Amino acid sequence: MRSTYRLLAAHRPLWDRTLRHPFLRMLERPPSEEAFRRWLGYEAYWFEGALTSFGCLLSEVPKRHRYVLAQALMLLTEELDWLEVNALPVPREGEVRAWAGRLHDYLAQGGDRLMVAVWLATRLQYDALRALAPEDELPRSYLERRTSPVVEAFLYDFEEMAEPAIDKLGVGGASRVLVEVVDAQSALWDLGLALAQGKE
Fold it and tell me: Three-class SS of residue 188?
């Protein structure tokens, strides 16, 4: 069994519980377009951090993987362009700063931890969003972009890159990264739910 499969299987209850986060149900019927656009503002910060991290990884990965990272940089840039048009400007909340700081820490600790973290975060978002069916146009466009065949193909390629990184980290190291990624994503979704409920 592949290391990526073993890692997810070992944490399946936590993974599945995270996929039932109430924010995801809210995405199907946001209480207002403004609340959704403000959430997109926080998403933009996440993508900015990922863009920086992917750029730093380019020099660390084997040459055969650089095309995948270059594709990731293109996808991230396209998403940031879309978010610039559709998101409302928002302050950097603590959850956003914490996630950006964690990406920086992973990078400082070596490319393997960052590789696994970004693959897990992308896979978690993909798994969470692909089952949703929003009614409004903007959330529907958002989900279609994040679960498109292009993103699915990228995830497959990125999983190939994460495989040796998981092996290097070992079961314990990769498991710690998974739990940290799930906690960080849950905190961001908590923030999105608070925005939707008019709490900040």
Answer: helix
